[in-house]
Amino acid sequence: MLQEIQKVKAMKVIVPPIKSQGIKTKLIPWIKDLTAIAHQKGKWIEPFLGTGVVAFNAGYKKAILNDTNPHIIGFYKGIQEGEILAPLMKKYLEEEGRLLSVADNNGYEHYLKVRSRFNSGEFSPYDFIFLSRAGFNGMMRFGSKGNWNIPFCKKPDRFAQAYITKITNQVAIVSQIIQPEPNWIFYNKSFSEIIPLATENDIIYCDPPYYGRHVDYYNSWTEKDEELLFNLLSETKAKFILSTWHHNDWRENEMINKFWKKFNIVTKDHFYHNGGSIENRRTVVEALVCNFDTNQIDEHNHGLKKKSKEQQLEIVWN
Ligand SMILES: C[S@@+](CC[C@H](N)C(=O)[O-])C[C@H]1O[C@@H](n2cnc3c(N)ncnc32)[C@H](O)[C@@H]1O
């Protein structure tokens, strides 16, 4: 297993066990190019952690990771504290997968059972992974009472052995990457309490809910939030990279003009395969907004123009 983990870590983008519609897996090489340019030796600070995919690929030994969603933070803290283990996940998924495959209504009855168990307040991190992987289209969405409200993917055989192995390996890999406290610290707070923790040598990566796009219980996002984020990032002494959307076929993100245009902006076409509405499943021009010089990177789409040797995708491991 260890050899397998090392191979995966060396070769490709590390994919976390949690899924969500806003996951940045495909944008990792681009974000890493900019991280390399920023060349910060301090901490990786991520106030909107989501699935964790960016943090897991950033290569920092010291990190502050935060999300308002308690299930995400609870899951990764559980791994950090050794309470959630890959072999336990395997055993759990084998059992729940078996129950799903024989349940009435093509598995739906068992999905509903796990969902109500979770929503009743048990909030088991194992059930969280089950719901994340057996829910429709890999989406994560919580209703007005903080309840998981994604329907079933309608695949009673969802947890075939190969799929269980894949998830189990993902848990094992992130267990290797997550550093013990105080090197990696997880918080379940608002971003406004996290950004001020950054100091000059740190790098902040922000991926907030996109204004005017996704909304759910843990993802409400207003212009006031965007303004507060803008003010905090304008004041920070650290370097920052902000992910946002630039425009799509229908409209422009008015927040760019209102706030972000005073910083450096690079863009890239990105296709979102899953999302609640057709608009969210189309090509979006993604933007990365930075408070440092981005001259080495093409403004649109094509990564680094010319990299000096020490700036090539360096793993920092401070
Ligand atoms: C777009 S997602 C981040 C996706 C992540 N970069 C990934 O690739 O998986 C935004 C995240 O911000 C969290 N969030 C929403 N409002 C927040 C707030 N006020 N403070 C901190 N986190 C918040 C949401 O729970 C969600 O997980």
Topology:
Elements: H1 2-11, H2 28-38, E1 44-46, H3 53-58, E2 63-66, H4 70-80, H5 86-102, H6 108-122, H7 125-134, H8 161-177, E3 184-187, E4 203-206, H9 223-235, E5 239-248, H10 254-258, E6 264-271, E7 283-290
Parallel strand pairs: 1-2, 1-4, 2-3, 4-5
Antiparallel strand pairs: 5-7, 6-7
Helix pairs in contact: 5-8, 6-7
Bound molecules: S-adenosylmethionine.
Residues 20, 22-24, 47-48, 50-51, 53-54, 66-69, 190-191, 207-209, 218-219 line the site of S-adenosylmethionine.
Provide a descriptive summary of the structure in words.
The chain is an alpha/beta fold and 318 residues long. 36% of the residues lie in helices and 13% in strands. It is built from ten helices and seven strands. α5 (86-102) packs antiparallel against α8 and α6 runs antiparallel to α7 (125-134). The radius of gyration is 20 Å and the shape is globular. It starts with a helix and ends in a 28-residue tail after the last strand. Bound molecules: S-adenosylmethionine. Residues 20, 22-24, 47-48, 50-51, 53-54, 66-69, 190-191, 207-209, 218-219 line the site of S-adenosylmethionine.
